[in-house]
Amino acid sequence: MANKVKSLLGGPGFYAVLALCVLAVGVGGYFLLFGEPAQTEAPTGPDTAASAPVEDLPEHEPVVETVPPEEPEEETEPVVMPEVTIPVDDTPVVAEEPHVVVLPIQGEVLTAFSVDQLLYNETLDDWRTHDGVDIAAAEGDAVLAACAGTVSSITDDPLMGTTVVIQHSGGYETTYANLQAEPAVETGDTVSAGQTIGTVGTTAAAEAAQGAHLHFSVAKDGEAVDPDAFLNS
Hints:
The chain is α+β, with helices and mostly antiparallel strands. Helix content is about 15%, strand content about 30%. It contains three helices and twelve strands, in the order H-H-E-E-E-E-E-E-E-E-E-E-E-E-H. Strands 1, 4, 6, 7, 8, 9, 11 and 12 form an eight-stranded antiparallel sheet that branches. A two-stranded antiparallel sheet has the order 2-3. Strands 5-10 form a two-stranded antiparallel ribbon. The chain is rod-shaped. The mean pLDDT is about 80.
């Protein structure tokens, strides 16, 4: 093999190889010199520059800020109101009796009511006013409460004798004098209209000349009023 290579390079073959190399170099130079000219880049400027395609901008989704829920405030203990105890009056309500007025006793009027003029008193032998009416009756006749009320006092008056006073609604007060010594009621008793409170006597020294009778008088808020107006109200 080595002998063949030496004979090729040493003889005419050497010149043949050299000619091929020269031919190859020449062909290559030709194409380099006379081939297609290399494309040169076109100058770019404001008028010739090609506008680059606008890339689609990505759609931006609205940013929603998530606010975390507020933590509930620390629970406070409810305010407990103190219990208020309203006192209840368990006292039974007593129905008031209708306003009924009755004549305390039947009889002739011996002395009329008079606070504006003087009347002569035979027993005392003088002139004085008369704050009630004197009604003739037999000793021992029943004397009735003229209206419902409460017995406020029982006294032994030096001039008017045994006297019972009854308080009524509306500021009224009735007085029954010249009764027998032992009335049928006591102080503080509640009486109804027409209830017996005592009997006719002769204990009134100031009216002894008139014999047995009932001295009956009425006052309104402390002022004497005509008994007839009260009895007919």
